[in-house]
C-alpha cells in the first residue's frame, strides 16, 4: 500500500507537469526507498494533453492589429510580474517540500535510518526492567505441592516477577571487546515468599568474569563459596582439563565477517515493524525524540527469519525444508497471538541522530491449552551514551576451576565418603535414617505427621515435619543436618582420600621430573591449579584437602602444601591425617621423593639423604627409564586408591588392570590408559618382555589388598636393581 503522504506529494508534482525523473531524484535525496517511489508514480495516471491549442481561435476575417511600443512595454511588465510571482511561488513550494522532508520525515524513513544507524553503533549503555504478573502458583508451574495445607489457601492471589538489568558494551576494538551485564531477580512465585537472585557478568577480551549473589539454598549442595565471589573463566586455562568453551561472545558467535555483514543487510532490508500511530514527541535523556506505536508485520518477520537461518547455516533450504520452516513459523506465531492480546510496542527515536532511546513493550497473556496461566508482562529498555568511551574494570576474581575443585572436594567428602551412612533410608522419603534422628521424625514412616507431605519435602522447604507451621528455630537446616552426619562418620574415608591425593600429586611431579629434568617450582603446584610442562598435562587439577579439613588435631584450613628444594632437585609435600592410617599416625606428615615420608616406626625420613631422583641419574637412559617406571607405578597406585575409595573398599579385579587398558569405575576414569614398561624392558637383570603385573589379593578377613610387580634396571635411591613389589602400603614397604 502506497504511503498517503508520499502519494499526495507525487500527485501534486505530476499535476504541475514535473518530470518523473525529477520527482524520483528529489525523493531519493530525502531518503524515500526507490520501490515506494516507483509504486507511487505508477499509481498516479499521467495528465492527458489537449488535442487542440488552448488559445482562442482567430476568425479568418478578424483583422490583426499591430502592437505598438507602449503596448509592448506594458505587456512585458505584466509578463515580468507574472513570471516573478510564479518563480517565487515555486521557490516557496520547493523550499517547503525540502524543509518538510528534512525536518518532518515520514515514520517509515525514520525507522529506515534508525536501522542503518544501529549497525554503526560501537558502544552504548542501557538499562531495563521486565515485569510479569500471573495467576498464583502458575508462573513457574504449580508450587502448591510444596506448601502445607493452610499456606496453600492463603496470602496471595498473583505471582510477581521483576527483573532489573543494566549493561555496557564496548566493541570499538574488535580484537579486544569489552562488555558488562548485571541483573537482579525478585519474585514471590515460590513458597509464598519473596526470593532474590543476582548476577554480574563481564567480558574483557576472551576472559569472562561472573559474580552470583543472593543464591538460593539448594539443601545438600552448598553454594556459599561462589556467593558474591567474582569467578574468572579463562577458556585457555580450561582447555587443560579438556573443557573447550571458546568465548563466542568475543568471537562473533563463530560467524564470519561476511555472515555478519549479510545479517546487518537483512535487518535493513526487511521492515518487520510498521508504524500504526504517530504519537506526541518527547524528550528522553534530554534528547528530542519521535514517538511511534508499532506493530509486527508477520510476512516481513517470516522473510527475515528465513534469511537469517540460511545465513547462519550457510545453505539454502530445500522445498521440503522451506515447507517445514513455514509450518513451524505459522504455528509459533499463531500460538503467540492466541496467548497474547495484540502487544503494545512503542519506540522513541532521536530526531537528530536517528538512534533508539527507549523501547516499551507490554501485553496481556491469556490462558490456552498450551499456556497454563494468565496475566500480563511488560518490558522497558532505555539506551544512552552511544559511541561514547565505556570503562569496564577487571575485578579481583578466583579462577573458576579452583572454586569448582574446592566445592567438589567438599561435596565428594560429604557424599561419596559418607555413602554408606547416608544411603540408609528405611522409609524411602529422601531423609537418611541418621538425619531423621536429628529432627525426631519416624525413620519408618515417610510422613510422620500425616499431613500429606513427606518429611523430606517439609524440612527442605522450611516447614515442621512434626506438625503445622514453620520448622522450629532451634532445628538445623537440611544442609546443616546432612553436613553433621557426614562429618561425624567420614574421617576414615577422608584420610583415605588424602593418602590417594598425595600419592597422585607425587606421581605427577615425578612425571614432570622425567620430562623436565627437575621438579616443578613451588608456585606451580597449588591446589585447584593444573600441573603441566610444555603442553603436557600431568595433573588436570591438583586436588584440595577434603572438607572438613580440621579432622582430629589438624588445624583449620589445612591444605596440601608443596615446596621445591635444592634448586628443584627435591621437594616436600605437607598434609595432615585425622586418624592413623596403617603405619601413619594421626597428625601432620611430609611426603618427599622417597614416599609418604614416614618409616614403619613413624619417624620422619630425611629428604636430603633419600632423594630418589638425583640429577646425575637423569642423564642415563637406563636411569631415565627407571625414573619412568617408578613414576608409572606411583600413578597406578594412586588410581587404585581412588578406585578403592569410590567403590566402597574394593580394589579392581586382576583381569581389569592391564597395561594398555583404562582403570575406571561406574563411569569415572582414574587412568585413561595403564602405562606399559618402557622399551627396552630388559635393563640390567630384568627379564625380557617383562611388564607391570597387577594382582588383587582377597584376604581371609574379607579385606582386600593388591600388588604390582615391576623391575628396575639399576639402583634407584634406596631401591636396588631387580624385581620389586608395590602394595597399598608403598613400594617394598620402604616408602613409609
> Which segments are poorly predicted (pLDDT under 50) over 5 or more consecutive residues?
48-64, 93-102, 142-155, 413-419, 598-620
Query: How many E strands?
Result: 23
**Main beta sheet, described?**
12 strands, mixed
Radius of gyration: 40 Å
- How many structural domains can be distinguished in the coordinates? 5
Question: What characteristic shape results from the CA principal axes?
Answer: elongated
Q: Look at the helices and sheets and give the structural class.
A: alpha+beta
Mean pLDDT: 76
Q: What's the number of helices?
A: 17
Distance between the termini: 91 Å
Beta-strand portion reads: 15-25%
In helices, the fraction of residues equals 25-40%
Strand order of the largest sheet: 7-8-9-10-11-1-2-3-4-5-6-12
Compose a concise summary of this entry.
By secondary structure, the chain is α+β, with helices and mostly antiparallel strands.
Structure commentary:
By secondary structure, the protein is an alpha+beta fold. It has 5 domains: 4-47 and 67-106, no CATH class; 115-384, no CATH class; 416-471, no CATH class; 490-619; 646-736, no CATH class. Helix content is 32%, strand content 23%. The chain has 17 helices and 23 strands. The protein has helices spanning 4-15, 20-29, 34-42, 69-103, 107-118, 235-238, 257-269, 298-313, 319-339, 400-415, 419-422, 433-439, 455-460, 478-489, 491-516, 607-610, 621-647, and strands at residues 123-135, 158-170, 178-190, 193-204, 207-213, 230-233, 273-284, 287-296, 344-350, 356-365, 375-384, 398-399, 531-533, 536-539, 561-565, 570-577, 587-591, 663-665, 668-671, 693-698, 704-712, 722-727, 730-731. Strands 7-8-9-10-11-1-2-3-4-5-6-12 form a 12-stranded mixed beta sheet. It has a 4-stranded antiparallel beta sheet with strand order 20-21-22-23, covered by helices on one side. β3 (178-190) and β4 form a beta hairpin. The longest helix is centred in the N-terminal third of the chain and has 35 residues, at 69-103.
Amino acid at each position: 500500500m502506497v504511503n498517503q503522504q508520499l502519494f499526495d506529494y507525487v500527485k501534486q508534482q505530476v499535476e504541475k507537469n514535473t518530470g518523473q525523473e525529477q520527482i524520483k531524484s528529489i525523493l531519493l535525496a530525502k531518503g524515500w526507498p526507490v520501490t515506494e517511489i516507483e509504486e507511487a508514480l505508477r499509481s498516479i495516471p499521467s495528465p492527458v494533453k489537449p488535442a487542440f491549442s488552448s488559445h482562442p481561435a482567430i476568425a479568418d476575417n478578424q483583422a490583426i492589429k499591430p502592437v505598438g511600443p507602449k503596448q509592448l512595454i506594458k505587456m512585458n511588465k505584466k509578463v515580468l510580474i507574472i513570471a516573478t510571482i510564479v518563480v517565487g511561488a515555486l521557490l516557496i513550494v520547493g523550499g517547503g517540500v525540502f524543509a518538510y522532508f528534512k525536518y518532518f520525515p515520514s515514520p517509515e524513513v525514520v525507522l529506515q535510518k534508525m536501522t542503518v544507524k544501529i549497525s554503526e553503533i560501537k558502544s552504548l549503555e542501557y538499562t531495563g526492567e521486565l515485569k510479569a504478573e500471573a495467576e498464583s502458583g502458575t508462573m513457574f508451574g504449580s508450587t502448591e505441592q510444596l506448601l502445607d495445607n493452610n499456606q496453600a489457601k492463603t496470602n496471595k492471589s498473583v505471582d510477581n516477577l521483576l527483573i532489573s538489568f543494566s549493561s555496557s558494551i564496548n566493541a570499538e576494538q574488535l580484537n579486544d571487546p569489552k562488555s558488562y551485564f548485571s541483573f537482579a531477580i525478585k519474585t514471590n512465585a515460590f513458597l509464598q515468599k519473596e526470593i532474590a537472585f543476582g548476577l554480574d557478568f563481564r567480558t574483557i577480551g576472551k576472559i569472562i568474569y561472573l559474580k552470583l549473589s543472593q543464591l538460593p539454598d539448594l539443601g545438600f549442595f552448598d553454594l556459599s563459596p561462589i556467593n558474591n565471589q567474582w569467578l574468572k573463566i579463562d577458556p585457555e586455562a580450561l582447555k587443560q582439563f579438556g573443557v573447550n568453551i571458546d568465548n563466542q561472545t568475543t568471537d562473533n558467535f563463530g560467524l564470519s565477517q561476511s555472515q555478519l555483514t549479510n545479517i546487518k543487510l537483512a535487518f535493513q532490508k526487511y521492515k518487520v515493524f510498521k508504524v500504526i500511530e504517530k504519537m506526541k514527541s518527547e524528550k528522553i535523556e534530554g534528547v528530542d525524540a519521535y514517538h511511534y506505536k508499532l506493530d509486527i508485520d508477520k510476512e516481513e518477520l517470516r522473510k527475515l527469519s528465513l534469511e537469517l537461518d540460511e545465513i547462519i547455516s550457510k545453505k539454502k533450504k530445500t522445498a521440503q525444508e522451506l515447507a517445514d520452516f513455514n509450518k513451524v513459523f505459522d504455528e509459533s506465531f499463531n500460538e503467540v497471538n492466541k496467548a497474547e492480546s495484540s502487544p503494545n510496542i512503542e519506540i522513541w527515536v532521536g530526531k537528530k541522530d536517528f538512534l533508539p532511546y527507549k523501547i516499551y513493550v507490554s501485553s496481556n497473556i491469556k490462558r490456552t491449552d498450551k499456556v497454563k496461566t494468565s496475566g500480563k508482562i511488560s518490558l522497558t529498555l532505555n539506551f544512552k551514551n552511544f559511541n561514547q568511551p565505556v570503562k569496564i574494570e577487571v575485578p579481583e576474581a578466583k579462577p573458576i576451576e579452583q572454586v569448582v575443585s574446592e566445592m567438589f572436594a567438599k561435596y565428594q567428602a560429604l557424599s561419596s565418603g559418607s555413602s554408606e551412612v547416608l544411603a540408609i533410608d528405611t522409609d524411602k522419603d529422601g531423609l537418611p535414617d541418621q538425619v531423621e534422628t536429628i529432627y525426631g521424625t519416624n525413620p519408618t514412616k515417610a510422613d510422620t505427621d500425616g499431613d500429606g507431605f513427606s518429611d523430606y519435602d517439609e524440612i527442605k522447604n522450611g516447614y515442621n515435619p512434626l506438625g503445622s507451621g514453620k520448622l522450629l528455630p532451634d532445628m538445623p537446616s537440611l544442609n546443616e543436618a546432612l553436613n553433621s552426619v557426614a562429618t561425624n562418620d567420614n574421617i576414615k574415608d577422608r584420610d583415605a582420600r588424602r593418602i590417594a591425593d598425595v600419592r597422585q600429586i607425587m606421581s605427577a611431579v615425578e612425571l614432570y621430573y622425567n620430562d623436565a629434568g627437575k621438579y616443578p617450582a613451588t608456585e606451580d603446584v597449588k591446589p585447584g591449579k593444573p600441573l603441566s610442562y610444555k603442553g603436557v598435562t600431568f595433573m588436570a587439577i591438583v586436588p584440595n584437602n577434603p572438607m572438613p579439613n580440621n579432622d582430629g588435631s589438624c588445624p583449620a584450613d589445612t591444605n596440601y602444601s608443596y615446596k621445591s628444594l635444592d634448586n628443584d632437585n627435591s621437594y616436600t609435600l605437607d598434609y595432615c591425617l585425622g586418624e592413623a592410617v596403617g603405619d601413619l599416625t594421626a597428625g601432620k606428615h611430609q611426603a618427599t621423593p622417597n614416599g609418604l615420608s614416614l618409616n614403619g616406626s613413624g619417624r620422619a625420613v630425611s629428604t636430603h639423604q633419600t632423594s630418589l631422583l638425583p640429577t646425575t641419574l637423569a642423564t642415563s637412559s637406563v636411569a631415565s627409564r627407571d625414573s619412568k617406571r617408578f613414576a608409572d607405578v606411583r600413578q597406578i597406585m594412586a588410581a587404585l586408591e581412588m578406585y578403592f575409595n569410590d567403590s566402597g573398599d574394593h580394589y579392581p579385579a586382576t583381569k581389569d588392570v592391564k597395561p594398555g587398558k583404562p582403570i575406571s569405575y561406574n563411569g569415572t576414569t582414574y587412568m585413561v590408559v595403564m602405562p606399559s614398561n618402557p622399551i627396552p624392558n630388559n635393563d640390567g637383570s630384568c627379564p625380557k618382555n617383562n611388564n607391570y603385573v597387577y594382582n588383587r589379593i582377597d584376604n581371609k578377613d574379607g579385606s582386600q589388598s593388591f600388588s604390582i610387580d615391576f623391575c628396575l634396571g639399576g639402583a634407584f635411591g634406596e631401591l636396588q636393581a631387580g624385581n620389586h613389589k608395590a602394595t597399598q602400603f608403598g613400594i617394598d614397604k620402604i616408602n613409609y
